């Protein structure tokens, strides 16, 4: 069944308004840390960081076939890839060449529909000093390092419900693959430990352009759900509706909320709801007044283009919102290509490529490139072996990381042997056992973000199985020296 979150299916007006009303009400129950909008600076944050840093997660729902996104380009390894992938292999002469500067020293190419990311990897505007993109190869959910022998003998703990969409999405977003009941995500837990000391208001530091997600939910902090048009509010009216039904409905909502209630729970809910509505309206006011005309043309005219443009505006609003630390969540669905992989993935990669490249160009033009890290996540990659015309659920995947702090132009991690039944294959048609954990990938970004070593066990409970958070080195090494502590 097609993923309904696909950006190729923009909701119509009725669906959007219905979702907006529900989301605005739904947000009220989770905005329990948000107070008034014109908030004064918090005393706790006065000794916090003076710089601004943002993590942007682009989640590819459904499981992107990332071994047709990043492909070996040397003759020997490409021959193995071609044998394994059979009718799904991309011809060598169609790949966009990546010119590594360091990394693992191997030759790679990108899917032919990714000219923007080719430029980001090889150098923005042809300038090799501006290599903005890197790939982390074969990264996935792990509790501890696992070899093929250990996997087959089941002598090491493994993530629960491997190859399941919902479970693997949750595990990427929580970084707790043991399967324990987990109601918070790693970005939410990072907000738990950073928000009070890093930000100067009580405005949520975790903003989502893709509805509610687990990644940004903390144990003490909440996410703030918005749209590419700003916040979800009770203001406005149906365009062309002479009865102004929407305005009348909103006036009725406000009248109900303005009442004084004898019941303490009712009165508290009413007060929280009013504050939440004011918060949404304050954000909408800030968002609508932000002038991004200088970079608007850099974003493609697509649904994802509007998402990335909105994200750039939210980053530009960090100071106005009092957010020295901020995370953004963007979702892109429809990657579950069990059939017609080549025909389906190609146009989606074009959309993704144009959005990501436009976003990074805009950040550079705004002078914000050194304070933003953008990365991709997905449920999992796909089986290397074709099922006929598509691929099935697998495990280890290739992930992109992009931004000024990245030592770009390199492939990090250990790219697997793509031969069927290799030491990297679980034994089921090319399901790659990850050689880099989600914890290592996320842990490096969180060191840049400012999470202290002493807080890492709370934010990433399994990180110690792969890396000493107090180390003077990084778990992977894709960040530039001097950009982290």
Describe what this molecule looks like in 3D.
- The chain has 485 residues and is an alpha/beta fold.
- 34% of the residues lie in helices and 13% in strands.
- The protein is built from 13 helices and 13 strands.
- It has helices spanning 13-30, 75-85, 115-122, 148-153, 165-174, 186-198, 245-258, 264-289, 303-316, 318-321, 341-365, 438-449, 456-459, and strands spanning 53-60, 70-72, 96-98, 108-110, 133-140, 206-208, 223-227, 230-231, 325-332, 372-378, 397-402, 411-413, 436-437.
- Strands 1, 5, 6, 7, 8, 9, 10, 11, 12 and 13 form a ten-stranded mixed β-sheet that branches. Strands 2-4-3 form a three-stranded antiparallel β-sheet.
- α1 crosses α8.
- It starts with 12 loop residues before the first helix and ends in a 26-residue tail after the last helix.
Distance between the termini: 45 Å
Proportion in β-strands = 5-15%
The largest sheet, given as strand count, sense and whether it forms a barrel, is: 10 strands, mixed
The SS-based structural class is alpha/beta
Number of strands: 13
Radius of gyration: 23 Å
SS field, number of helical segments: 13
Mean pLDDT: 86
| Shape summary | globular
Helix content: 25-40%
């Amino acid at each position: 069944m097609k993923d309904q979150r696909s950006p190729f299916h923009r909701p119509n007006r009725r669906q959007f308004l219905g979702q907006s009303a529900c989301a605005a009400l739904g947000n009220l129950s989770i905005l329990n840390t948000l107070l008034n909008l014109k908030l004064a600076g918090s005393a706790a944050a006065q000794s916090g960081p003076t710089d601004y840093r943002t993590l942007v997660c682009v989640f590819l729902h459904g499981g992107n076939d990332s071994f047709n996104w990043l492909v070996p380009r040397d003759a020997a390894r490409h021959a193995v890839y071609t044998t394994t992938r059979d009718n799904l292999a991309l011809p060598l002469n169609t790949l966009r060449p990546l010119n590594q500067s360091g990394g693992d020293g191997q030759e790679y190419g990108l899917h032919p529909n990714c000219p923007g990311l080719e430029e980001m990897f090889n150098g923005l505007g042809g300038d090799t000093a501006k290599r903005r993109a890197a790939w982390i190869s074969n990264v996935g959910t792990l509790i501890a390092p696992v070899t093929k022998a250990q996997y087959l003998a089941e002598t090491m703990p493994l993530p629960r419900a491997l190859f399941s969409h919902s479970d693997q999405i949750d595990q990427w977003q929580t970084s707790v693959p043991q399967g324990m009941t987990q109601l918070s995500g790693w970005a939410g837990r990072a907000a738990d430990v950073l928000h009070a000391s890093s930000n100067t208001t009580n405005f949520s530091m975790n903003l989502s352009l893709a509805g509610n997600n687990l990644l940004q939910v903390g144990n003490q902090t909440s996410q703030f759900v918005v749209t590419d048009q700003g916040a979800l509010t009770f203001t406005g009216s149906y365009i062309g509706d002479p009865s102004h039904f929407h305005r009348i409905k909103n006036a009725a909502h406000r009248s109900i909320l303005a009442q004084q209630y004898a019941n303490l729970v009712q009165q508290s809910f009413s007060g929280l709801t009013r504050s939440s509505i004011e918060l949404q309206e304050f954000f909408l006011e800030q968002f609508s007044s932000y002038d991004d005309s200088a970079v608007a043309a850099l974003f493609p005219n697509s649904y994802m283009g509007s998402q990335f443009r909105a994200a750039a505006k939210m980053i530009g609003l960090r100071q106005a919102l009092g957010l020295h630390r901020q995370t953004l969540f963007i979702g892109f669905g429809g990657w579950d290509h069990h059939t017609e992989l080549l025909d389906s993935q190609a146009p989606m990669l074009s959309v993704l490529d144009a959005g990501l490249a436009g976003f990074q160009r805009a950040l550079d033009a705004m002078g914000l490139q050194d304070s933003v890290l953008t990365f991709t996540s997905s449920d999992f990659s796909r089986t290397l072996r074709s099922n006929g015309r598509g691929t099935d659920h697998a495990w280890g995947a290739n992930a992109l990381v992009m931004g000024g702090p990245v030592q770009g132009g390199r492939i990090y991690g250990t790219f697997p042997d793509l031969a069927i039944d290799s030491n990297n294959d679980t034994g089921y048609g090319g399901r790659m056992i990850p050689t880099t954990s989600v914890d290592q990938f996320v842990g490096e970004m969180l060191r840049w973000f400012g999470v202290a070593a002493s807080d890492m066990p709370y934010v990433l409970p399994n990180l110690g199985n792969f890396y000493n958070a107090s180390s003077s080195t990084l778990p992977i090494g894709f960040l530039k020296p001097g950009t982290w502590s």
